[in-house]
Amino acid sequence: MAAFGLLGGLLSLDRTAVLQTMASRPLVGATLAGWLVGDPALGLLAGLLLELLWLMDLPVGASVPPDESLSGVLAGVFAAAAPDAWAPEARAACGVLLAVPAGWAGRWADLGIRRWNAGLLSCVLEELGRGLNPPLARAHWKGALRFFAAGACLTAAGAAGGVWVLGSWAPGLPPQAEASLELVALLLPVLGGGAVLAGMGLRRHAPPFAAGLVGALGLERAGGVGTAIGGRPWRP
After folding, report:
1. How far apart (Å, rounded) are the C-alpha atoms in residues 231 and 108?
2. Which of 160, 166, 219, 209 shows the shortest CA–CA distance to 189?
3. Greater model confidence, 199 or 110
4. Comparing C-alpha atoms, which of 71, 17, 66 is closest to residue 43?
5. Other C-beta atoms lying within 10 Å of the C-beta of residue 225
6. Three-class SS string for the chain?
7. How far are the Cα atoms of 78, 158, 170, 235 from residue 164, in angstroms, in the given order?
8. By the number of CB atoms within 10 A of the CB, which of 196, 199, 216, 232 ranks highest?
9. What is the dihedral of CA 31, 32, 38, 39, to 10 degrees?
10. Which residue, among 97, 75, 55, has the nearest Cα to 182 in the 3D structure?
11. pLDDT of 119 above 90
């Protein structure tokens, strides 16, 4: 959990406070979380499913979207904590579903840190008004440290809670749960693609896009059914 917390804290700095190299995106965060537990491929799959959902929600200017960095790391953690007997798609979808609400918790924390850091500016302006030379670098480091601490604590706490829930309840779920999660893994790219089109102002193209993607997925499934029935490979 300490390693997850350190990863979450560093990526929270990259999100807005310090670097902004895009390493804080879910695709990277989930893969790194999977790498920490020895399964980077599963983390990458969870990151791919989550990335499309928030691809157009960027923390630019005054916009404070859900914390995609926190959700990305937790998606990789939760996917790895899901039962090993489940298919990778089901484990990845489970990780994404549990991690999405954490993004909103991270958003509230982000807003609180921003309001808290506004006090640093007030202190600097007050000292300048008195003719003093305030330590600007110290104020910058203090503001960044607050973002790091919030990201680290939320990531560690979320990982601990989610792993406990999955370890306690997931093994007792019926087989239908795994099948349902596999279906969710198929539908998440559809939702993500629609979110991207909506974010680009192309809402009128979202329904045909979704219909085409659902049709393609249906043909993919039909290929598997045809193989099972006919005994030979069939691809659309």
Report:
1. 54
2. 209
3. 110
4. 71
5. 10
6. CHHHHHHHHHHHHHHHHCCCCCCCCHHHHHHHHHHHCCCHHHHHHHHHHHHHHHCCCCCCCCCCCCCHHHHHHHHHHHHHHCCCCCCHHHHHHHHHHHHHHHHHHHHHHHHHHHHHHHHHHHHHHHHHHCCCCCCHHHHHHHHHHHHHHHHHHHHHHHHHHHHHHHHHHHHHCCHHHHHHHHHHHHHHHHHHHHHHHHHCCCHHHHHHHHHHHHHHHHHHHHHHHHHHHHCCCCCC
7. 10, 10, 10, 41
8. 196
9. 0
10. 97
11. no
Spatial separation of the C-alpha atoms in residues 26 and 31, rounded to whole Å:
8
Mean pLDDT computed over 19-46: 92
Give the angle subtended at the CA of 53 by the CAs of 68 and 32, to the nearest 5°. Answer: 45
Neighbours of 155 (CB within 10 A): 31
Lowest mean pLDDT among 170-174, 178-182, 225-229: 225-229
pLDDT bucket at 76, cuts 50 / 70 / 90: very high
Residues in the chain, total: 236
162-167's contacts with Cβ under 8 Å and 24+ in sequence apart are 162/74, 162/77, 162/78, 162/81, 162/98, 162/99, 163/77, 163/78, 163/81, 165/98, 166/78, 166/81, 166/82, 166/83, 166/94, 166/98, 167/81
CA–CA dist 81, 88 (Å, integer)? 12
